[in-house]
Amino acid sequence: MAHYYFENKPQPSGKGGNKIASSLHYSYICRENKYANIRGREEDLVYKASGNLPAWAQGNADSFWKACEEYKPTNYRAYREFKFALQEELSLEDNIAMVMSFIEQSGISANHAYTFAIHDKPAAFDDEHRNIHCHLMFNEKIIEPGRALPADMYFAKYAENKDGEATCGYRTSREFISKQKTFELRTMWADIVNAKFADRGINASVDERTLLAQKEELLALGKTEEAEYFDREPAPHLGSTYRNPKTMERIREKIEQLENCPNDDCYNFDDELNEANEQDRKILAFAKDFLLRKIGKQIQHEREKLFAEMQANKEETEDLSYAVTAGDLTQRLTILADAAVSESKVLLEEYDKIKENIVKNDYIEHKAAYNALGDDGKIYRNLRIDYSKVLKELKAAQLARDNAQARAQNLVGDISSVADWQAEKQKYYAAKEEVKTLLAKRSELGSKIATFKGRLNAPEMVKRVNEYINEIKENNKLLQEKAKKVYGKYILKKKQATRYYEVMDELRNLGTSTVIFATKIPPALQTYSKILGTVPLTELDKITSEKDKYYILQRNKKDGSALAVKLNDDIKLGKVPVYTLTLDKNNDGKETVKSAKITGKISTYAQNDTLKKQSSKGHDYPILGIAIERKLTELAAKIVEDNNIRIDAYWNEEHSVVHDKLQEAEHKLSQGWSL
Predict the structure, then answer these.
(1) Closest by alpha carbon to 215, among 204, 200, 230?
(2) φ and ψ at residue 565, rounded to 5 degrees
(3) Residue-wise pLDDT tens digits, 236-267
(4) What percent of the chain has pLDDT over 70?
(5) What mean pLDDT is reported for the chain?
(6) What's the pLDDT tens digit per position in 191-217?
(7) Burial category of 172 from C-beta neighbours within 10 Å (exposed 0-12, middle 13-18, buried 19 and up)
(8) Is residue 545 over pLDDT 90?
(9) Distance between CA 98 and CA 101 in Å, rounded?
């Protein structure tokens, strides 16, 4: 999905409260004068142009904007700026053509002097994609053809004589001040981009509405219940933080931690941020929000892909979903968390196997000796094992002998314990014999081991043993490094699962029906709609009657009737009509609708309190018995991941305010990126 950004912004003010000079901003966006050689910005000026400049400016936009600053009245707004994203899928020529089309359609080309510049830089969090955008600044004085004015009069306040004839200045447009106009311009730009995509045969589109805008539109339509689900807290605004390369790298690493392990050493990153540090908390929240939006875009991409596959197979198709909700994301995150847990278990098993092959330090010399002896190494190893075993048995036998002897001595002279004394004496003699036997065995094994040690002390064997020691140590080093990497991945996967669960906990606080990402507002019941915020229509039985499609909520087996909702019915205050259907069967045995009567309403988006209210009013439609395997899980299993997926993210554009530095005039554009 293509990237959308559009902002209508009046001339901003700097730290001191004074407005940023129009000439300075012109120089900045056009990379002229003091900004001709900006360092440390991975950005290129790829195109600039100006239009409708007066004759006295001699086609020099710089002189026009300097004159504006010099001659404009105090507190007069020198310029207004539109900033909007261009599309990397299109050529520079196509992007320029779209900008020119927008300038014409908006009326700027007919009425105002303007300058625009196109910048191109790597996307903030994906070097494989570009952030191409346009700065369009224009003076709001309405040019009057046939009444050319010099510089000192051009920017003066408009005035008329007693006859109503203009004597000074041009009128100042107030057309672009209102929110309604901004909405129209956002729509206009989206239409221009989508038209260009269609003209070039590119399967992509943009949508101009943010969640906040959609919420406001829903409220204006009286759809208060639906609006509730657009009331999501956005990620915190990072301000000018993104300009710090170290901070940007921390954000990238944090996002990578949340998603995957980019390399074998990623686990070394200190992922436990200092909770006392406000900036760190913002970064973590920013990364989590990015993850949610990315998953949301992936889900929608999968839906679009399935839709295309169904069309290709000439199957009956309708939009699968207009929105991705907190419930959708929770389900996907559950899959990801479970996968991370499973992967961590596999990695732990791999780690244990590697550790088993690492030779302990006190065993290295023995291992080297076995290797140096070749085929006899096994015999030598078995002799040492047997010798160690005999030593343990000998120690136990000696202890048994000494204990039996001590107990027998304690019983000497006690006539009543003669039998016990004799028993202990027998134990003593048996243990003594066992000791004798084990001593002989130890001596025999020791003699054989000594023979091998003699062989190992030969100079050529000493050299060979040392070579094997070095070989074992080197192999140990490699195995330890491998074990460290595997263990690091294991820890990462465990932390991934933990983070997924943490994000899920946050989503639960929002409610399952809260919209995280949306492309359009549902004015009527569609197949992507959900009953009670839980059950998609696609999961319900469908009956077609002439041109109407009904989806069955509940059947009455006694009289053959059913409760149903009808496709394309208007959604009013979050609810749609419920029909009582009288069902019949035709000659082919196909189920048909004999009659349909509205008998109640049911919510498309509902939480527990809504369900309780419905039940109290007698509108209880139990659909809990329907066995539903969520569509997203099916999609996850059916659809192959597309490596070329594009993800767009926007961060609290509506509430951001610039307080300092001229360069921050671009800060909101830099908050959006594509993957």
Answers:
(1) 230
(2) -115, 160
(3) 444 444 445 566 566 666 555 554 433 333 32
(4) 66
(5) 75
(6) 899 899 889 888 777 765 555 665 665
(7) middle
(8) no
(9) 5
Helices (H) and strands (E) in the chain, counts: 17, 18
Query: What sign does the CA torsion over 520, 523, 528, 529 have?
Result: positive
pLDDT > 80? residue 626: no
Among the listed residues 405, 469, 400, 470, the one whose alpha carbon sits nearest the alpha carbon of residue 438: 400
All residues at 6 or more sequence positions from 249 whose CB lies less than 8 Å from its CB, including other chains: none
Q: What is the pLDDT of residue 398?
A: 93
pTM equals 0.46
In CATH, the number for domain 6-210+660-674 is 3.30.930.30
DSSP secondary structure letter of residue 205: -
Residues 282 and 593 sit within 8 Å (Cβ to Cβ): no
CATH classification for the domain delimited by 362-477, as one of 1.20.58, 1.10.3860, 1.10.3470, 2.30.30: 1.20.58
3-state SS class at 361: helix
Q: Over the range 183-210, which residues count as b (16 or more CB within 10 Å of their CB) and which as e? A: bebbebbbebbbebbeeeeeebebbbbb
Phi-psi region of 500 (alpha: psi -120 to 50; beta: other; left: phi over 0): alpha
Contact by Cβ (8 Å): 380, 369: yes
Strand runs labelled E in 242-357: 323-325
Q: 456 near 462, Cβ under 8 Å?
A: yes
Which region among 311-325, 528-542, 624-638 has the lowest average model confidence (pLDDT)? 624-638
pLDDT at 395: 94
184/79 Cα distance (integer angstroms): 20
Task: Show the beta-strand stretches assigned E in 169-270.
Answer: none
Under a CB-based contact definition with an 8 Å cutoff, are residues 635 and 302 in contact? yes
Distance between terminal CA atoms of the chain? Answer: 10
Phi, psi of 437 (to 5 degrees): -65, -45
Of 262 and 78, more confident: 78
Q: For the chain, which residues make up each domain, given as ranges?
A: 6-210+660-674, 362-477, 541-622
d(CA 556, CA 236): 51
Give the residue from 616, 620, 673 showing the smallest Cα distance to 647: 673
